[in-house]
Records
---
Amino acid sequence: MRTVTFLLLPILILLVLTGCLPPSQLASAPAAGDGQPELAQLRQEQAELARQMQRLQDNLLLLEGRLHDQQQMLLELRLLSSQMVTPDGQKAGSGAAGTPLGAPRAAAPTEIYLQAFASYASGRCPEAITGFQEFLRLYPGNDYAGHALYWLGECYDSQQQHAAAADAFRQAAERSPQGGKAPEALARLAVSLQKLNHRTEAEEVLRLLRQRYPESAAAKRSPPSN
């Protein structure tokens, strides 16, 4: 469906730009030298239609990126939910043998991560930021530290804190260069840098993304440098 859409868009734009008119309008088109105001207005309308088509194409690219994020969130939640249960059916971190009844216990890393992730997925970004920061403070060496930094960057971005978002995405890419979030972290870092008007640095990050992860979905979505 996406391929068909992108194939149709250039055709529609071409039709708009070439000014294809119905036969009735062609028959009544003004001769050369006549109807100059009407011709100028027609060209202006064609240019506006072309701009609208471009905006539609940009919106499709944005929706594709958001859909990818939603799919990643669902996969991550399923994986983490399965890790919450031990082979004997007991929830991880819910109190093992030898722990006195009623004694305080430290929250398991998966539990903290899941709570922060659920807050982000529900749009409660301030709560998610607090949760991810707590996770990173308590378990900086956890396998999901890179993931936590990535989602922390997404939280900051949604709050228009682009400098903090760029810092989180940069750390996510550096913390787990072989992790699954590294390519996406570099792509999102480039976007944050563009929002900060650091365009040269953003282009360097995109070149690094395509060089280091050429087969990743993030690299294939990123436009080539001019």
---
Amino acid sequence: MPTAPHARRPGLAVAALALGGLVAALTQTLVIPIQSELPSLLGADASDTAWVVTVTLLTAAVTMVVSGRLGDLVGKKPVLLGSAAVLAVASAVVALSDSLVPVLVGRALQGLAMGFIPVGIALVREIVPRERAATAVATISATLGVGGAVGLPLSAWIVQVGDWHALFWVSGGAALVVLVAVAVLVPHVRDEAPDGARGALDPAGALLLAVGLVAFLVGVSKATTWGWSDARTVGSIVGGLLALVGFGAWELRHPDPLVDLRASARRPVLMTNLAAVAIGFGMMAQSVVVPQLLQLPEATGYGLGQSVLAAGLWMAPGGLMMLVFAPVSSRLMGSVGARTTLMVGAAVLALGYLVATLLTGAPWQLMVASLVCSAGVGIGYAAMPTIIMDHTEPREAGAAVGLNALSRSVGTTLAAALMGTVLASNTTELAPGVSLPTQGAFTACFLIGAAAAVVGVLLMLTVPARAPRAVAAPPVADDDAQPVGVA
């Protein structure tokens, strides 16, 4: 059986994929600097404009699995091009809008672009020489953190020097650059199996997954606002979980499931996905807590009085640290294996949070703690998709990596909700009517983040340290699609 030819210029192909992942991740933090101004900008209540952030996270969560499956069925390059095109159109929709409904529509469409990341990761091993695949996967995985970290100061600066609509013209322009780069630099690879053997998309499964995820994540993300015991919170979470149980039952009986749950139940895959929840939780905790601590007034005695832009600049090096540690993760995977590498990453993440409990007296100290945390995330995030692909058939890799990315997304959503609850439940009155989180609340958040990372280590200890099972040969290049740069 022939093996997949590699891109003639694999470095450029990986660069295009990494750029696409960075731009997709950038949309997650794009509106954070203007979140408090959205009610006046859009003429709506704050409770309604909060969905401008939430709706992107919800559509992204559903899309990562569905896009992965589509990539397995029709080829990964068409899905990558579609994701970039949707992001360009979505950005234009928001850039041309001044009211809530079209902005929500555009932001929901922007979330669809997050499917680019798992599909790009799954494609890497089909176009990059084996000895370079680990570094390429690590680089693309790091874009999740880099895009989010760079997005905050970039967005704050754009808003300071121009109109808020410029945020979305910039993201739209970047999406067009990605579209061209993928079209020119990334080869098209097809499965050599006959069309009927590739399977078909499972729309009922996709619907059940969407309903379950949206309901569950809405309940979790709104728990701080509604209250954990509120009927809306409980109903959303319980209803979402029931729908997800129904999704699981449907998938197990379906001859061509959206996600092969039996394969996902293998111990290496299952434990890696559970560890992804824990490490995603750990990554998001610093993203929620550190900016707030940086921006609290100095009058509290522990706040550092930084502006939104300054706080973003202090956080940005952490995102770049994830990219710096991509080759480190690759070397670790080559020497000690992906399982141990993931454990090392989670341990470093936990260490970063412990450092944060001691270094909160100045912005540079929090930056150091953030750098340590980000190094751990950079190491661990690269190892996760590697473990998944090592234990998954190539023609199912897109959906499997998408499920892993979804697990991380669930972790980040849980972290945002829990950190918000901890900070809102432990406050001190700075002035009449002005209550702010206590110093102890921030310390508790750091310790919770460390505990989540340790859970990730413990989960991976249950995975046997052994070589991955053999999988089928990879697909072949589609000459009819006129791939660029394929030998």
